[in-house]
Design a protein that fits this description.
Layout: H1 9-20, H2 26-32, H3 37-49, E1 69-77, H4 81-91, E2 97-102, E3 109-115, H5 118-129, E4 135-142
Antiparallel strand pairs: 1-3, 1-4, 2-3
GO molecular function: sequence-specific DNA binding
Organism: Kingella negevensis
Protein name: Leucine-responsive regulatory protein
Length: 159
């Protein structure tokens, strides 16, 4: 049974402000959402406890860290439960892969990954990904330019 969480305008404002800057102190956050610090902290704690706020993280610059090759990889696997389990377990160990999505359609999975260069990418494809017995095929696309990249979820449907 899932409990529906009711968010009011103040909760939504807190979420929007935190998505823009998760490092704000409670005092700064309370000023931005027009609440005093104690009620703001209480609401923030409730949002965390209810799982609306899952975690806080620092977003790093891939290029500043020498990860200039961004790749989208479409993976096709065997269609068995064992293959899905094997692939799901393996992908958890690949630090190059930031996200893995199970898909409908032509490919079974979509990987978003970063590499230092073509040699690192080639090693990953040949010695890691295609070494999985469940993987039948992998097709890659290299990101030429990021047009939009955000971690902020849309909240306008909740207001």
């Amino acid at each position: 049974m899932t409990t529906e969480i009711v968010l009011d305008k103040t909760d939504l404002k807190i979420l929007q402000v935190l998505q823009e800057n998760g490092r704000l102190s409670n005092v700064e956050l309370s000023e931005r959402v027009a609440l005093s610090p104690s009620p703001c902290l209480r609401r923030l704690k409730q949002l965390e406890d209810n799982g609306v706020i899952q975690q806080y993280a620092a977003l790093l610059s891939p290029t500043a860290l020498g990860l200039g090759l961004q790749v989208i990889i479409r993976v096709t696997t065997n269609k068995t439960a064992e293959a899905r389990a094997e692939f799901s377990e393996a992908v958890q160990t690949w630090s190059e892969v930031l996200s893995c999505l199970a898909l409908t359609g032509e490919a079974d999975y979509l990987l978003h990954a970063f590499f230092t260069d073509m040699n690192a990418f080639s090693h990953f494809i040949m010695n890691v990904l295609l070494a999985q017995t469940c993987v039948l095929d992998a097709k890659s696309s290299f990101v030429l330019k990021e047009i939009k990249n955000t971690t902020a979820l849309p909240l306008n449907h909740l207001s």
